[in-house]
Design brief:
With 85 residues, the chain is mostly helical. It has one domain. It starts with 5 loop residues before the first helix and ends in a 9-residue tail after the last helix. The relative contact order is 0.08.
């Protein structure tokens, strides 16, 4: 096994973190899987995240993601319980 010094590991991690941070498509995919409460909190992370979360297209995509087919299937087959007859 090759041993990279701790200095090399931190440089690699920083480089990977920067690469992810600049990949807006990846950030959007991650944010689309979060709850509304988390999104409100994450607006404070950075100006970039605030702009993404506040964007109209993101809001529409987030609303569509919240209504996944499995959720719709459950909602369509829900029948209210009738009270005593």
């Amino acid at each position: 096994m090759v041993d990279f010094g701790s200095e090399d590991k931190s440089k690699t991690s920083l480089s990977s973190a920067e690469e992810i941070g600049y990949n807006e498509d990846l950030i959007i995919e991650i944010l689309l899987n979060l709850s509304a409460k988390s999104l409100i909190r994450f607006k404070a992370v950075s100006k970039q995240w605030m702009c993404i979360i506040s964007d109209t297209n993101f809001c529409i995509a987030n609303a569509k993601a919240a209504l996944k087919p499995s959720t719709l299937l459950i909602l369509n087959h829900f029948e209210p319980c009738e009270g005593p007859t």
